[in-house]
Amino acid sequence: MHLLETKRLLKRIKKRCVFQDDQQLEESLSISFLAFLLRISTLTLALLSILMYGFLNFFRALTLDLIDCTRFSSRIAI
């Protein structure tokens, strides 16, 4: 956003909200922005955990268990 658009947006917010000074407005906006970032990061972590769970389950099906490994090694030894 351009600086002029940002100033217009701040003026509209000031008209709708009752703040004693600009510092309270900035603190309120920064808290809202931090809450927004927290929500996005939580969503990102949830998506990553779901993808990793699926990724690891895919490779779990390809791995051999201990019994298969011992059978395979005993066949090679014979």
Briefly, what is this?
The chain crosses the membrane at residues 31-56. This protein is mainly α and 78 residues long.
Beginning-to-end CA distance, first to last residue: 74 Å
* Estimated structural class: mainly alpha
Strand content: under 5%
| Main sheet overview | none
Anisotropy-based shape: rod-shaped
Uncertain runs: none
Number of strands: 0
Please, could you describe this protein's structure?
There is one protein chain. This protein has one domain (20-77). The model has no long low-confidence stretch (mean pLDDT 71). It is built from three helices and no strands. By secondary structure, it is mostly helical. The radius of gyration is 28 Å and the shape is rod-shaped. Keywords: Membrane, Transmembrane, Transmembrane helix. The chain crosses the membrane at residues 31-56.
Map the helices and strands:
Layout: H1 3-16, H2 22-60, H3 66-77
Could you list some keywords that capture this structure?
3 helices, mainly alpha, rod-shaped, 78 residues, 83% helix
